[in-house]
Design brief:
Radius of gyration: 17 Å
Largest sheet: 3 strands, parallel
Strand content: 5-15%
Number of helices: 7
Shape: elongated
Order of helices and strands: HHEHEHEHHH
Strand order of the largest sheet: 1-2-3
Length: about 160
């Protein structure tokens, strides 16, 4: 899965400029907004709040909490689930996908995979990745995919 936008602010500006928030009403789709969090709690939550306001109430939201670099917390120590923003959009959040902060070796493997723009399947077939690297990346994939599998059942219901 490739990212459409690497900068959440750019994503919001592009979607609003192109009237994307009205797309669901025009074509009878129920969109799923996927938002990645990082260590910058205030910036990510502000952007998520802006996106939630810009889309119709029927737009479902999937939050990705990417803990590379540490657990995501506000300056007051709150997790995303404890934040006022989460409380205000809780009914629209269909899933929270949590990507754990990897150990040093796994982080190197992820970086190598990303630098080569490889999927997990391509890593498995690539002779440049050794057995333990493949094993670590498989564990990362399994963690993410199992959360997505659980979330997809919720999406299907909506």
């Amino acid at each position: 899965m490739r990212e459409w936008f690497t900068n959440p602010t750019h994503a919001l500006i592009t979607m609003v400029t192109n009237n994307f928030q009205n797309f669901p009403n025009q074509f009878a789709y129920n969109p799923v907004i996927r938002m990645r969090g990082r260590c910058v709690f205030r910036s990510a939550t502000k952007c998520l709040a802006d996106i939630a306001k810009s889309f119709p109430e029927n737009a479902s939201i999937v939050v990705w909490l990417n803990e590379f670099g540490g657990e995501i917390r506000s300056s007051q120590g709150q997790t995303f689930g404890q934040s006022g923003l989460y409380e205000s959009i809780r009914d629209r959040v269909v899933a929270i996908i949590k990507i754990q902060d990897p150990d040093e070796l796994t982080l190197k493997d992820i970086s190598a995979q990303q630098n080569l723009f490889l999927t997990y399947e391509e890593v498995r077939e690539n002779p440049g990745f050794k057995l333990m690297q493949k094993s670590r990346l498989h564990r990362v994939q399994k963690s993410i995919y199992s959360q997505l599998d659980l979330a997809s059942g919720v999406w299907a219901i909506q």
